Automatic annotation (TrEMBL):
Keywords: DNA-binding, Phosphoprotein, Transcription, Transcription regulation
GO BP annotation list: phosphorelay signal transduction system; regulation of DNA-templated transcription
Name used for this protein in its record: Response regulator transcription factor
InterPro entries: CheY-like_superfamily, NreC/VraR/RcsB-like_REC, Sig_transdc_resp-reg_receiver, Tscrpt_reg_LuxR_C, WalR-like
GO terms of molecular function: DNA binding
PTM annotation (4-aspartylphosphate): residues: 56
PANTHER family: TRANSCRIPTIONAL REGULATORY PROTEIN YDFI, TWO-COMPONENT RESPONSE REGULATOR
Residue span, HTH luxR-type domain: 150-215
Gene3D superfamilies per UniProt: 3.40.50.2300
Boundaries of every Response regulatory domain copy: 5-121
KW Transcription (keyword) present: yes
Tagged with keyword RNA-binding: no
Amino acid sequence: MDYIRVVIVEDDADWLRGLTAYLSAQEDLHIAGTAENGGQAVELMERIAADVVLMDMMMAGSPEGLWATAEIAQCTDAKVIMLSSMEDQELIFQAFQAGAVDYIVKSNFEEIPEAVRGAYRNRSAIHPSVAEKMRREFRRLKALEQEVRVKEMRNLLTPTELQVLDLIEKGLTQPQIAEQFFVSIRTVKVHVGNILRKLESKSSKEAAQKAKALGIL
């Protein structure tokens, strides 16, 4: 039988002993080594070959597992599964950014053996609760990206250009806009030309639609 070589990184001695005993009872899993912190884990992975690393997220009161995961993911072919007592949305996202292939809450320890097998076979199935938090984080980042883009576009356009865009979106013609602003049509055309250039649009209608879609108006 081919064994899956597992390394456990955990600073809680009792949890480390318990998890080691639990996984050792699995016929196809072999505990290749253990470490108590991120530094030990990185050093251990330089000396031995392992297929899967079970990495504790929080060690010594900080998310030490993140940088250790990044180091191991970059320097070895081992798959890293992050273990944590928390379902913190931001930490989950950071774990996958660091290179983890799965994230398991410690209270779901009975899922760890199958998660190890899945990681070894490149078939990691993210826990539904973790997947939902990742979706929320992606949505949050997308919304943040949109906010930044809107702010950049608002800063790109002058207050007058924004007013002109708003009136165009409301259906006013250039002569009507000129009359409302008490300026010449030529001045309005200059503003419209600047708007088209900045919004990379071919017509004032297209520019207004783009501005509305971006949330500028």
